[in-house]
């Protein structure tokens, strides 16, 4: 049986505080903790790492508290470029979220707008363009950045520079939710680095990896009586068998909980 690691709220808080501490000791960073945001999004929605990185502000409906998973970020090893593709099961999906995440996202959006003003021309803006290479469609990420700033600092640019595309080609803007304060792209590679930091510095969650947050989300839903079909939809599983097989240990606990509910109900009637 697959062993899934599930974290409590206290573990999550510990993780937030630790990433906060790390960032306070890095140059050109301020108190906004860029690692905490993707962790909180994954914890509250069960999204995969690539899906969290590919999330844009246009995907979030604050009024109805729904976000739409339309794309996933990945690295093309052959082309050596960061690109976007459809989610794992090939279909976009909608995920409802509560007041807790709504508050977190609202603060993050305000902070990002503030950072754009602070960094001015040094802020990295992201774009995308879909092209066909060797008979395959590629949605590639482009970045408009200040070259001297990148060269003379510890910053990185993960997207293709906008100057490296034909002037006749138009680029479409992207406003990613998860970025560093200067707009630098947050990638799945960044989240892998986060895994290593947590594993090294937090013994109580030394087995942490980003996907654990997805397991925690799903297990919490099932244990608290959520319909397994709804869980499948929220996780984006193509087949309900995947959901049932992955969380079979949780559904067993849920069944026992249901039996206890029944026993308590008939005991009250008999008594």
Describe this structure in words.
This protein has 271 residues and is α+β, with helices and mostly antiparallel strands. It has one domain (9-205): Orthogonal Bundle (hpI Integrase, Chain A). It contains ten helices and nine strands. It has helices spanning 9-24, 36-45, 49-53, 99-119, 147-151, 188-201, 211-223, 228-235, 240-246, 248-270, and strands at 60-61, 66-69, 72-76, 81-85, 93-96, 125-133, 136-144, 160-161, 172-174. Strands 3, 4, 6, 7, 8 and 9 form a six-stranded mixed beta sheet that branches. It has a three-stranded antiparallel beta sheet with strand order 1-2-5, with no helix packed on it. Strand 6 (125-133) and strand 7 form a beta hairpin. The protein is elongated, with a radius of gyration of 21 Å.
Characteristics:
elongated, 45% helix, 6-stranded mixed sheet, hpI Integrase, Chain A, 271 residues, alpha+beta, 3-stranded antiparallel sheet, single chain
| Cα end-to-end separation | 41 Å
Number of helices: 10
What portion of residues is helical? 40-55%
CATH fold-level name: hpI Integrase, Chain A
Average pLDDT, all residues: 79
**Percent of residues in β-strands:** 15-25%
Give me the secondary-structure category: alpha+beta
- Integer tally of domains: 1
What's the SSE pattern?
Answer: HHHEEEEEHEEHEEHHHHH
The unreliable regions are 1-6, 19-32
- Counted beta strands: 9
Architecture blueprint of SSEs:
Elements: H1 9-24, H2 36-45, H3 49-53, E1 60-61, E2 66-69, E3 72-76, E4 81-85, E5 93-96, H4 99-119, E6 125-133, E7 136-144, H5 147-151, E8 160-161, E9 172-174, H6 188-201, H7 211-223, H8 228-235, H9 240-246, H10 248-270
Parallel strand pairs: 7-8
Antiparallel strand pairs: 1-2, 2-5, 3-4, 4-7, 6-7, 6-9
Helix pairs in contact: 2-4, 2-7, 8-9
């Amino acid at each position: 049986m697959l062993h899934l690691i599930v974290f409590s709220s206290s573990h999550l808080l510990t993780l937030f505080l630790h990433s906060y501490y790390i960032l306070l000791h890095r140059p050109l960073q301020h108190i906004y903790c860029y690692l905490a945001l993707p962790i909180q999004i994954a914890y509250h929605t069960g999204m995969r790492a690539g899906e969290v990185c590919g999330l844009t502000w246009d995907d979030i409906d604050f009024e109805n508290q729904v976000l739409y998973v339309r794309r996933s970020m990945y690295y093309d090893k052959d082309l050596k470029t960061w690109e976007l593709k459809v989610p794992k099961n090939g279909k976009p999906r909608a995920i409802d979220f509560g007041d807790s995440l709504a508050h977190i996202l609202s603060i993050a959006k305000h902070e990002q707008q503030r950072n754009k003003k602070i960094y001015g021309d040094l802020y990295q803006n992201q774009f995308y363009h879909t092209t066909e290479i060797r008979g395959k469609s590629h949605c590639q990420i482009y970045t408009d950045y200040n070259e001297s700033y990148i060269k003379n600092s510890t910053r990185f640019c993960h997207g293709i520079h906008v100057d490296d595309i034909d002037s006749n080609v138009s680029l479409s803007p992207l406003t990613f939710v998860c970025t560093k304060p200067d707009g630098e792209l947050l990638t799945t590679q960044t989240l892998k680095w986060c895994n290593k930091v947590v594993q090294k510095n937090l013994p109580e969650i030394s087995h942490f990896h980003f996907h654990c947050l997805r397991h925690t989300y799903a297990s919490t839903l099932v244990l608290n009586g959520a319909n397994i079909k709804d869980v499948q939809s929220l996780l984006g599983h193509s087949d309900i068998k995947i959901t049932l097989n992955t969380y079979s240990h949780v559904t067993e606990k849920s069944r026992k909980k249901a039996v206890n509910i029944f026993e308590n109900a008939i005991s009250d009637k008999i008594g």
